Inverse folding.
């Protein structure tokens, strides 16, 4: 598995353009983590810019709101890929729930078709 800057950028843009509020289906770990990595890098850069701007710095907050829906949709589709309900996102509201979601996001895909759709890795197995 090779991830380069172009692949990361394409995955990020694809999710924002084509799957902005998509909570149905499945998504592979590679797509989930590439989006998460690019989003984290952008958030760090915008946080630095906001610190420089001082009281006028709110660009990071706007970005966070802009990617909230696609991030939740992506996590729901990632949970679907492991055979779990997207409603499990709600356990993130509890103290330990974030760690549980992190564990689920790291799990490998359920092989073959499941109740949420076709295996996104079907051609690679």
């Amino acid at each position: 598995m090779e991830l380069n800057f172009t692949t990361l950028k394409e995955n990020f843009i694809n999710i924002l353009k084509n799957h902005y509020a998509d909570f149905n289906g499945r998504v592979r770990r590679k797509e989930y983590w590439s989006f998460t990595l690019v989003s984290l890098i952008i958030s760090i850069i915008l946080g630095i810019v906001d610190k420089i701007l001082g009281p006028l710095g709110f660009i990071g907050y706007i970005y966070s709101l802009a990617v909230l829906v696609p991030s939740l949709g992506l996590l729901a589709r990632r949970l679907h890929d492991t055979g779990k309900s997207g409603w499990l996102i709600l356990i993130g509201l509890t103290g330990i729930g974030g760690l549980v979601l992190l564990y689920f996001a790291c799990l490998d895909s359920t092989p073959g078709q499941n109740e949420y759709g076709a295996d996104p890795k079907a051609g690679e197995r």
